[in-house]
Amino acid sequence: MNSAIHGVVRTAYVNGIVTLGVKRGYNGLINNDMHVLGPDDVAGITGLGGTMLYTARSEEFQTEAGIQRAVKACEYMGVDAVIVIGGDGSFRGALDLSKHGVPTIGIPGTIDNDIACTNYTIGFDTAVNTGMDAINRIRDTSTSHERCSIVEVMGRHVGWLTASSALARVTEEAPHLIYLPEVSFDNQRFIADVRDQLLESPAVLIAVSEGVRHADGSFVGEDNQNGVTDVFGHKYLSGAGKALEALV
Fold first, then answer.
1. To the nearest whole percent, how much of the chain has pLDDT over 70?
2. Among residues 88, 112, 125, 230, which one is catalytic?
3. Long-range contacts of 99-104 (CB under 8 A, 24+ apart)
4. Cα distance between residue 119 and residue 105, in whole Å
5. DSSP state of 192
6. How confident is the model at residue 223 (pLDDT cuts 50, 70, 90)?
7. Cβ atoms of 138 and 151 closer than 8 Å
8. Active site residue 112
């Protein structure tokens, strides 16, 4: 996201356009928390993770009154257009602004890679490489101790991140078993799959998406979490992994 901010600011600068940086997403837009960004302000940020503008969920922006406050802030600051970097929630907010007369430009940014009309989103490649590294490291432990290991990967309701992290192998083989939200999870089938793999090798590596579901639509491990999600709407990263661990 910092690289995207850097690109926007520098491109706008050479074209004589003033860029305002909005702090903490739509909260900043509602509260008029924005300031001018120039080339010096974004120098050296491209190698930093996250976003220099910070991020936050905005419950108020999900209301009509909140959207109206954001629109008025744009009018007060003379904003000609808003560039939104984010995932599906951010894009829904951009659509709301657009419907209220504020031109918006969307830059897809989410490790989940679940935004339509683009092959890869900002953050996805970094997350894939992080997932690959984690799988490689767990593989070493699993092999050394001759045990079954489970790696739970984020991705929310889609399996792009899990599949890519597990299958984009360079020097190592893929995990023995991979479970994605796109295919219904069955407890008995899972137990049989693990048993079959253990007959071949004492060390079995499993990759599972956090959003993997049963045929009835319920999340695997949901009964252990009471449906708890974090502030970004993600299931806590202990649900699916713990559920599979219990079955093993």
1. 92
2. 112
3. 100/67, 100/68, 100/71, 101/71, 102/70, 102/71, 102/74
4. 17
5. H
6. low
7. yes
8. yes
Structure tokens at 41: 């302000």
Cα–Cα distance for residue pair 242/85, rounded to 1 Å? 33
Strands (E), the chain: 19-22, 34-37, 82-86, 104-108, 148-153, 177-179, 204-209
Question: Class of the 125-247 domain?
Answer: alpha beta
Q: Quick check: helix, strand or coil at residue 35?
A: strand
Dump pLDDT digits (tens) for 39-88. 999 999 998 988 999 998 898 999 999 999 999 999 999 999 999 999 98
Most distant CA pair in the chain: distance in Å? 68
Of 242, 248, 1, 241, the C-alpha closest to 121 is 1
What distance in Å separates the CA atoms of residue 130 and residue 168, rounded to the nearest whole number? 12
In CATH, which of 3.40.50.150, 3.90.550.10, 3.30.70.420, 3.40.50.450 is domain 2-108? 3.40.50.450
Counts for the chain of helices (H) and strands (E), in that order: 9, 7
- Token pair of 197, please? 């793999």
How far is 158 from 3, CA to CA, in rounded Å?
25
* Encoded amino acid at 59, one letter: E
pLDDT in tens, 127-151: 999 999 999 889 888 889 988 999 9
Q: Quickly count: other Cβ atoms within 10 Å of residue 100's Cβ.
A: 13
Q: What does the pLDDT read at residue 171?
A: 53
Residue among 89, 112, 237 nearest 163 (CA): 112
Q: For the chain, which residues make up each domain, given as ranges?
A: 2-108, 125-247
